[in-house]
Amino acid sequence: MRAQFVLSEIGVGLRRNLTMTFAVVVSVALSLALFGASLLLSDQVTSMKGYWYDKVNVSVFLCNKSDAASDPNCAKGAVTEDQKGQIKDDLEKMSVVDSVTYESQDTAYKHYKEQFGDSPLASSLTPDQLQESYRIKLKDPEKYQVVATAFDGRDGVQSVQDQKGILDNLFGLLNGMNWAARAVMALMLVVALMLIVNTVRVSAFSRRRETGIMRLVGASGFYIQAPFIAEAAVAGLIGGTLACGFLLVGRYFIIDDGLALSEKLNLINFIGWDAVLTKLPLILATSLLMPALAAFFALRKYLKV
């Protein structure tokens, strides 16, 4: 009988404040969808870092004849065979280096033609204008500075470049977008909490006579509060369910179908469905507990008789 009473009171409360209940559902759905999206974006950035950082190289470019006249780092002339051999030996001795690959001027020219063959500069470029280089794969991509410190300014070395620096700009942009999504999410959560508290207040005020009678006949505080807390929890759970639906549809539309980014950007290692599904229980739990707790603390003042 008590359970039936609580359920009936939940239905009454939701119908009485239908407009505010709708606002709570929408705000909870949007805020938790942004919450889930920010978690998935973090996973995507982490996945991309693991995928791309494992492939980046540090390049030690060697001086050629044309650099001797134009580059201060090559003022002593083009790199000699002895210098090349010493540089390679020193690189292979470094504990942070996994492997060293030599790229000749002819190989560099071939790669340039493959990548930029349509550019006007490609027709006038010759192999002797490009630098020889050592392509270094590091055991830990974060240790680039160890190689840079050891070889920057060394005789025969024109420059040391780290491909990770290019990726850092991309990941910095993605992280910035993630923090922006979190800021909007936090704002939406605050709005949702305010709506939940106001909805509970209105519901408690409209039923103050019933709750007063219940208090006078000896009903416990929890028994009186239960319908109001359950109303907020049900509204929140509906919003959380919608948020889960938004994430599932968004993942399918953006990555698998619709925009089909997994086919158009096949160089990106997109997160799978397992990453999305593992976030759904957290979103549902948050959608249930957050409104219930907000209602509980709001009722401590507004149900005193």
From TrEMBL:
- Please indicate which superkingdom the organism of origin belongs to: Bacteria
Question: Keyword set for this entry?
Answer: Cell cycle, Cell division, Cell membrane, Membrane, Transmembrane, Transmembrane helix
Question: Where does the chain cross the membrane?
Answer: 21-41, 179-200, 221-254, 280-299
Identify the stretch annotated as signal peptide in this record. none
Report domain FtsX extracellular positions. 56-160
Q: Where does this one sit in the cell?
A: Cell membrane
How would you describe this protein's topology in the membrane?
Multi-pass membrane protein
InterPro entries, sorted: ABC3_permease_C, FtsX, FtsX_actino, FtsX_ECD
Where does the ABC3 transporter permease C-terminal domain lie? 183-301
The record's section on Pfam families has:
FtsX (PF02687), FtsX_ECD (PF18075)
Q: Which residues form a coiled coil?
A: none
Family named by the database record: Belongs to the ABC-4 integral membrane protein family. FtsX subfamily.
Query: How does this protein assemble?
Result: Forms a membrane-associated complex with FtsE.
> What function does this protein fulfil?
Part of the ABC transporter FtsEX involved in cellular division.
Q: Which PANTHER family match?
A: CELL DIVISION PROTEIN FTSX
Can you name this protein?
Cell division protein FtsX
Write down the species.
Streptomyces chlorus
